[in-house]
Amino acid sequence: MDPVIGFSDHYFDQFERWITSMSYFLQSLLVGLLFICGAGILIVPSRRLMTGLLALQYIGVFLLVSVSWPLEIAVVKLVAGWMASAVLFLTYQNLPGSVIDDRIDVNLSGTFFKGFTALLIGISVFSLAPTALRWFLGATQQQVLGGLWLLGLGLLQLLLTRDSLRIIVGLLTVISGFEILYATLEASVLMTGLLAILNIGFAFLGSYLLMASNLEESL
Amino acid sequence: MSTPILWIFLPLLAAGTSLFFLRYRNLLRWSGLGFGVALVASAIVLPIGEVFKFLFWEVRLSDQLLIFGRRFILSGADRPIVILLFSLWLFWLLIMDPKLVPIQFIPLSLAGICLILTSYSVEPIFYGALFFAFLALIFVVLLSPPGKEPTPGVLRFLIFQILGILFILFAAWLASWIDLNTGNQVMLARSLLILALGFSFLLSVFPFISWISMVGEKNHPFLSGFIFNTYFLGVFLFGTRFILEGGWIGQGVNIQAPLQIAGVIMLGFGGFMAVFSKHLGRLMGAMIIAEIGRSLLAISLFQAGFPIYFGMVILQSISLGVWSLSLTQLQQGIHDLDFQSAAGAARLWPVITSGLLLGYFALAGVPLLGGFPIYWALGSGLSFFPLWINSVFVLSTLGLIFGGLRLLSVLTKHAGEESILILGEPFYRYLILGLNTLLILIGFLPQWIFGLTRTISELLLGS
After folding, report:
1. For chain A, domain boundaries
2. Cβ B173–A186 below 8 Å, yes or no?
3. Which of A104, B31, B346, B372 would give a disulfide with B411, using CB separation of 3.0 to 4.6 Å?
4. What residues does each domain of chain B span?
């Protein structure tokens, strides 16, 4: 064998291994970011911060989806997610008295409880991830972990609140988790489009529900 | 031109456009009625797949539309469903009092009907689940009219529907795996379990029933009635098509027993709730829960059960319509819909309360009213199955009738005032009387209904 080719092959293999481990590391970072965002959405009392974290969460969703999908299709998730976050944020900003009401249910023991349950969800999903990997054959470990974490934290949000905005954000989180997992199974353009419209539809519904009580009665 | 464009996209466009004319209540209502008649007439008369002359154009109505590689099909065999859905919309529009019902009802209900048709017509059928998500969004807006806070029941409805849809999408993906691994029983069991969970959310099967009574209690009775009527019909149509087209029955799976167990649980709950309900809205919720149970039992009879199921749909629409209309009118006279506030209402508003009583008793299955022959046929079909199913069926019917008798005693209670008062416009009182007569007529002439529903079932199952 030509020593020059052998030498370059060796470095190419090393480079490939480095890329793989970097990708693994970056994906792990992303999953960590998703958990922090999901748990943050659950815990933070400020609605503004919550929508900010939601927007940040969509970056993680987009990057994890891009592992399975072409970048130009995966970016639809980011655009739709940011639009949804923007719609919620702008509605909330323009509501009368929104500055005073920004902090909802500020309660130390409640926050601690939510943080603790988020941690429990995190640990249980982490322990279940190897089993779940058998269900999602085309998915990486990080995709399964990220998807399930978002599903779990979103469900927790839905269980713990009666506030319509938080319920909508909880549903958006659940759908984000589902989208990460579903992206590893199905890559249809129509499905992508419909899920994107659904995300934006949720945001509009949330903004309508926030404003409904301030609107003029239709009777 | 194709049938999906004519019966889905055109009405959706009309619904969207009419949102700009909400100020003109009467114009919207009358044009809605005209449009509804046109839709029903087009579904009855227009030939599909043949060239015909329309004014000075030669038109051929294709039965499918291709969007991003997915087909939307509404063929001649689906004609009964199109007619049924648009007739339902027309019926609810006809009995709607524009002064008492939020005007958004007209465009949003039409959009809802179109989305039910979309989810029914899309191929592969699991895409229909996503359209149910949009339907849930629209119905949440419909149930939360401007000026009112969204109620907890509505938010719970939204959560349950979205979770159900996600489970169905996932089950559909797992089902595609079964095709590749034929005979993989573990995979089949997994996907069936997830599918059952998805449809339990969508159909509000126990333990996901709480939102029904919550919505019945806190939301506008007319809007709740419409949503209970059309949403569950949509889910049943989608579910039936999902099971038939997804090849779930062909996998050698026994879905009859789970359907019957779910049906019995729901019917039992409905009957039990009716005995203890002290609120007119919650009583409506109990009625609906029992109706979901009966529908599941009817569908569990497969071919023999489909005519019964469609008979139940027609009866449910008339009964729920007259109940909701009466309750909406009654709300003008009483401040709350609990039994205490409604005490003695029959002495003050006899026509309006007659609508409540007949609508309820027809759905409960009281002899000589419309529901009796239909539930009798269902009971006869179920008589070949275990005794416990039949026992719950009879006991729950008795529970529903007992709830109705309590309602009768509350409404006729002597509350001090005896004079008959006038509430609402005469047209709606005549409408209540007309619908009451119809419910009695169906009881005496059930062959009309069964003749119609047999034709619908044959057309659908033939496809």
Report:
1. 3-212
2. yes
3. B346
4. 254-463
